[in-house]
């Protein structure tokens, strides 16, 4: 039996279907000629369906946001003497944190469930427990019923973390991904704000009844949008995947998404392993730098966000404003806090694509730290009777609201955006679920310990602690945060594989041509220790951004990126070792030596990606 027949027998049904679909697409592409007028689709037309899909998903996050914001109005209501449900101090701390404690448990099931059922179906089913929880809230008569409702919302909130983060990353194009990912946090903040506003107007039981509207609307909206094309392709449902991609790119014909869909199909192909080592390969994906470095980054961003005071300020806003002697009603101040959060997250959505994540995150983290530091200093001076507490009470109120504003410019949004971008495709579902688990463990600890910290350290001391977390976090993010805005998921994965460095945004004039070249010359990156297939042949074209600048030199970073593909694509160790000499060349020399070496003499040592 020939080797080709053996290989065909080992191939799984998904791989065979993908290969057949891609080959059919190539034959059709050779026979079909489409003019620029026929394939041109406006940016607006491409953006509208992606916004619709993300908007339907955001209704689920608004629903989840209402469950987080409900504690903000429930806790002060239960503290009133005329409350119909009597609670102790210990029960109050659990009411503020139980749902967050249980979110990680839901996160454990988030990745596997969304991988099995699909992103869309998992999000649709998540609406049912939310309806049950709001009914329990409305009819509750003791603390146990309140805690049961909190437990349901916490578990369901964890279950939806994986699909909502992965869905937005898989249905959007790179130039829209950052902005539309930021709307996820905007939706949660909007849900929280509805509770602050409603709680200042009506009783908390009435608010619970009103909240039934959101999950019902979300379920209906999700019925109208497609499933993730990535998930459908992985499951071998290629026709449905292509149809979903056509819907998401502006309700276009398959010929328009041919290149993107072909790259997607080729990316999900992987050799079938019948030697019993498949589990080892899956485990290896979690030990590669392409997983643990992004996981550290996302965890650090979550730590700064939660222990930097953002979570506790939101949950205990009414209590904090009361202790700061706010010059306005504490509930009114909380509404202003919610408005500041909404304005901040809106600015994030509108500016993240223009400024990039690095600059915006530095502004957000630094601004939040300075606002909290100013409030802490005021608190110390006021407690020492250096200030007239009544005359200057507007200072801490203003700066706490300002801290909420600056935090939502990027700090609270950043880790959730990164969680959908920085993980490799093999582990993306489970990694996003694990990241969400870490986030809510931190948030629950922050909420659970706030009242105890405030009693032992005083409110100014607690706020000072939060300010230091933000300022130290600013230094950490400066070192470890890459600029992922405007980058493809492949480029981000290559950054963590050590192939390129994403400290700056791509230049505008290079952006379109680089993405086009990447589609035509795909490279599947696994890890530095794995051979990387370099698409192309002896006649391959130079990447469009590597052009002569008129002085006989090329861009050093990009030429090194290509050189690294050569080195790690070499078949034998001797070829790989000799290729490493490229990296010692100067900037001018690299442009003249590296590319001819790549272009001709070493191509015989490569294997092409299928």
Structure in words:
With 610 residues, the protein is an all-alpha fold. Among the domains are: 42-225, MFS general substrate transporter like domains (Growth Hormone, Chain: A, Up-down Bundle); 288-508, MFS general substrate transporter like domains (Growth Hormone, Chain: A), CATH 1.20.1250. Helices cover 73% and strands 0% of the residues. The protein is built from 28 helices and no strands. It has helices spanning 3-10, 13-31, 36-39, 43-79, 89-117, 119-125, 127-139, 143-171, 174-199, 204-210, 213-222, 229-234, 238-248, 258-268, 278-287, 289-307, 310-315, 317-323, 330-355, 357-383, 394-411, 414-421, 428-480, 489-496, 508-520, 556-569, 573-579, 587-601. The longest helix has 53 residues, at 428-480. The chain is globular and about 70 Å long.
């Amino acid at each position: 039996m020939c080797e080709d027949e053996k290989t065909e027998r080992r191939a799984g049904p998904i791989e065979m279907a993908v290969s057949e679909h891609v080959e059919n697409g190539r034959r059709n592409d050779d026979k079909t000629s489409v003019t620029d007028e026929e394939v041109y689709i406006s940016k607006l037309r491409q953006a509208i369906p992606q916004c619709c899909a993300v908007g339907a998903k955001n209704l689920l996050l608004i629903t989840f946001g209402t469950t987080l914001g409900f504690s903000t109005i429930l806790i002060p209501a239960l503290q009133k003497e005329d409350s119909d449900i009597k609670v102790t101090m210990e029960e109050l701390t659990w009411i503020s944190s139980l749902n967050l404690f249980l979110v990680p448990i839901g996160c454990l099931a988030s990745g596997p469930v969304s991988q099995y059922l699909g992103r869309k179906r998992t999000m649709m089913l998540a609406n049912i427990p939310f309806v049950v929880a709001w009914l329990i809230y409305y009819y509750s008569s003791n603390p146990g019923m309140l805690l049961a409702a909190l437990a349901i919302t916490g578990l369901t909130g964890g279950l939806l973390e994986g699909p909502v983060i992965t869905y937005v990353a898989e249905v959007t194009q790179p130039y829209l991904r950052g902005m539309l990912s930021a709307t996820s946090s905007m939706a949660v903040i909007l849900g929280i704000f509805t509770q602050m506003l409603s709680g200042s107007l009506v009783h908390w039981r009435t608010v619970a009844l009103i909240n039934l509207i959101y999950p019902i609307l979300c379920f209906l909206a999700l019925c109208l949008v497609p499933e993730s094309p990535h998930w459908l392709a992985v499951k071998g449902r290629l026709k449905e995947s292509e149809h979903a991609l056509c819907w998401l790119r502006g309700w276009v014909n398959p010929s328009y998404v041919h290149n993107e869909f072909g790259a997607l199909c080729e990316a999900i192909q992987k050799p079938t392993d019948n030697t019993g080592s498949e589990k080892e390969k899956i485990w290896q994906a979690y030990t590669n730098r392409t997983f643990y470095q992004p996981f550290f980054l996302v965890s650090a961003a979550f730590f700064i966000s939660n222990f930097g005071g953002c979570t506790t300020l939101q949950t205990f806003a009414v209590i904090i404003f009361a202790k700061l002697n706010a010059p306005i009603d504490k509930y009114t101040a909380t509404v202003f806090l919610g408005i500041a959060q909404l304005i901040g997250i809106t600015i994030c959505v509108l500016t993240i694509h223009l400024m990039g994540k690095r600059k915006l995150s530095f502004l957000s983290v630094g601004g939040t730290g300075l606002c909290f530091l100013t409030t802490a200093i005021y608190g110390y001076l006021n407690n020492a009777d250096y200030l007239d507490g009544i005359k200057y009470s507007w200072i801490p109120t203003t700066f706490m609201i300002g801290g909420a504003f600056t935090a939502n410019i990027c700090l609270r949004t950043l880790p959730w955006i990164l969680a959908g971008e920085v993980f490799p495709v093999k582990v993306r579902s489970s990694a996003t679920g694990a990241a969400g688990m870490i986030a809510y463990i931190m948030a629950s600890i922050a909420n659970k310990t706030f009242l105890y910290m405030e009693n032992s350290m005083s409110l100014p001391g607690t706020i000072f602690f939060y300010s230091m977390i933000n300022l130290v976090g600013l230094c950490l993010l400066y070192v470890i945060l890459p600029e992922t805005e405007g980058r493809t998921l492949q480029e981000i994965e290559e950054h963590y594989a050590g192939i390129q460095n994403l400290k700056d945004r791509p230049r505008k004039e290079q952006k379109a041509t680089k993405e086009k070249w990447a589609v035509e010359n795909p490279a599947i990156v696994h890890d530095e220790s794995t051979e990387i297939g370099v698409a192309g042949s002896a006649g391959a074209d130079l990447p469009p951004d590597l052009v002569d600048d008129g002085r006989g030199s090329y861009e050093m970073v990009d030429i090194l990126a290509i050189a690294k593909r050569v080195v790690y694509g070499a078949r034998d160790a001797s070829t790989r070792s000799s290729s490493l000499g490229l990296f010692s060349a100067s900037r001018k020399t690299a442009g003249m030596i590296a590319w001819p070496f790549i272009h001709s003499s070493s191509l015989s040592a490569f294997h092409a990606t299928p």
